Amino acid sequence: MKLSVIGAGYVGLPTSVGLASKGHPVLCIDIDERKVEKINTGKCPIYEEGLSELIEEVVSKDMLEATTDTQKAVANSDVTFISVGTPMKEDGSINLEYIKQAAEDAAKGIRDKDAYHLVVVKSTVVPKTTEDEIIPILEEVSGKTAGEDFGVCMNPEFLREGTALQDFLKPDRIVIGELDRKSGEKLEKIYKDFDAPIIRTSLRTAELIKYASNSLLATKISFINEIGRLCKELEIDVYEVADGVGTDHRINRDFLDSGAGFGGSCFPKDVRALIKVMEDYGEKPRILKEIINVNEEQKTKLVEQLQKHYKDLSGKKIAVLGLSFKPGTDDIRQSPAIDIISELKKKDAEVKAYDPEAIENMKKEHPDIKYTDSYTEALENTDAGLIVTGWGEFSEITLDEIRLMKNQIILEGRKTQLRIDKSYREGLSWP
Ligand code: NAD
Ligand code: UGA
To answer: Which among 156, 261, 369, 409 has the fewest CB atoms less than 10 Å away?
Structure first.
């Protein structure tokens, strides 16, 4: 089956490349011409482990081609995945502007072909969006009927940035929300070589499974961060508590790593969107609201801890180590580092920042701080170092490097395997 994928971002690109590597010819579509050009020369426009190598391979085998022409790509394929962004509006609700445009563009391609076509919504959308917003656009613009001339599925994606390709190729489960049986059967065929259970549901059930999953993972993080605050008071290591709790298979150890709060393009926006949907239905999203409140407080806890050393941060030189919202990515969307740097700037501290991948992105957010080429350079002559993102390389900081600091204080937002003497370091949620 020939596939087209609209949106070559953190989800669309691994989807395109992953499906091409499974033997499906893929037309990958984006409005960003620079991305399209890069992909067609076998280069990867984002940083994701393993993706560069596989793009090169599938492009050289003519299994993947990128284009800006949605209408033509849809008309020349059998199945179209829509994986454009669904960001957050000011009020926390979902912004459907991009997905509606993508649906309109896809519908023009469906209009141009005679054969049956399948549209698969992969973007995260709140329950009933596919039924109430996407299908009407597809029908109106194509002049055809859903369930007869074309099929529709909602297939949420559960991959994580940093391990996107691996997560896409080896998922825990594949959820297929279907308009009708024929649509679901066609999509299931594409996934036949994937070693994962397939769950077939209605369109709106699939949509809610995605929000409930992300919100429950975010709940685990805010929960352990709240427990971490007590741990700090009691001189207990929250990571030991998490190990003890997470060994219970009903709870599971994953997503119980305390830190500077969750960021990224999904948890913050998806929990907020679910809050908005519940309120629109007259329900009170009490737990969901607290997940966000705890997280907002958590983001600047490191600065509060720093102020136990320096009440007045004015003129203090502070190294911020780690800028991406998590290790393994150059993505800084909603990264706790953004808020931490803002807070330090507000208090007139002098910030030096380092990250192995995310400096260029952070420069757009905070152009007025100093960036360095290594963590050693960032630490030099500073009054304190804050480890915000747990990149593996920070565990290699040596005592000699610490000695380059003016005052030798390292505050760890995320627990790393730092081997330097305990007297130089402090954890956010451990002694
Ligand atoms: P992204 O911003 O990285 O990529 C979206 C891409 O779509 C961009 O390259 C943009 O140029 C392109 N685009 C926008 N409108 C277009 C149009 N009309 N035609 C063609 N291309 C268009 O977004 P993302 O992080 O890949 O997220 C996509 C969706 O997947 C969102 O709904 C998100 O919530 C969901 N999701 C994201 C992740 C993740 O880890 N990032 C994981 C699971 C689900
Ligand atoms: C998350 C989900 O894990 C994916 O399943 C989902 O598909 C995706 O959102 C999405 O819908 O976009 P992602 O945001 O890429 O993936 O990254 P995560 O590994 O989940 O990390 C999210 C944030 O939580 C990061 O800031 C990370 O540092 C933080 N986190 C994660 C913790 O603070 N503690 C943990 O134990 C785990």
So the answer is: 369
